[in-house]
Design brief:
Length: 238
């Protein structure tokens, strides 16, 4: 998760704390401060406020009760429920924003999730397979053209390495194949599943050739799945 998403999450958390604090303040009425009375010897100070007669003292009204403070307004249940409802709505909107933010945030050019330069056409001979690390894919040149194979195994998502010295699973060259180290799935230069538990061939990324340069659009949202029968489907001509 990038810094922008963390900032959004923390902002929503801070907003929730503020709303909770305000709700508590509404529930708990303010307490009036209790005046502090200090007992000093008589004759040391003068006061402009007449002393309050005590019970039983001369001048005190008989049967008088202490003066009651101002009445406390009861908390409006409807207002409290309104605050709780708005808090829930804001949390839901925040979760939606965090979920959809990656789709609208611009991808970095030259890294996975964006457009990656995979070299020149002249860098590849027929049968060559080269890994483009920053894009998490392989460029495979077959007689029909170029394929951009996502390194992720369709079985359980392991990274599939290219074994340049292993026995070939196609007729293009005598050596070279993809071997998944997790569960033993094997693929040829087309990314076609030849053996193992993988349910389909390796996924493809869109590939284009511009002025002799190979460009690949990467990311899970653009990966193209193929059926097992599509052995030589969608190579991009050189």
């Amino acid at each position: 998760m990038d810094a922008t998403v963390w900032i959004l999450v923390w902002s929503l958390a801070a907003l929730l704390l503020v709303l909770v604090a305000r709700a508590r303040a509404m529930v708990q009425p303010p307490v009036a401060p209790v005046p502090v009375r200090r007992s000093l010897p008589p004759g040391l100070y003068a006061s402009t406020t007449a002393p309050t007669p005590t019970a039983g003292a001369p001048g005190a009204p008989s049967g008088s009760a202490p003066a009651a403070g101002p009445p406390i307004d009861p908390v409006s249940r409807r207002k409290l429920l309104r605050w709780v409802g708005w808090t829930g709505i804001l949390l839901v909107l925040g979760q939606l924003a965090v979920s959809f933010l990656p789709f609208f945030w611009p991808r970095k050019v030259g890294a996975f999730g964006g457009r990656v330069l995979a070299g020149n056409v002249s860098d590849y001979d027929v049968g060559d397979v080269k890994k483009i690390t920053e894009g998490k894919f392989f460029i495979s040149r077959v007689p029909e053209g170029f394929l951009a194979l996502w390194q992720r195994c369709p079985h359980l998502g392991c990274s599939v390495p290219w074994d340049a010295n292993g026995p070939s699973l196609d007729s293009i060259k005598p050596q070279g194949r993809f071997n998944c180290p997790c569960h033993g799935s094997q693929y040829d230069r087309y990314g076609q599943i030849i053996a193992g538990p993988a349910p389909r061939p390796m996924d493809l990324f869109p590939i284009s050739i511009e002025n002799g340069r190979i460009y690949v659009q990467t990311g899970p949202q653009v990966a193209k799945q193929r059926a097992v029968a599509d052995h030589q489907k969608d190579p991009t001509p050189a």
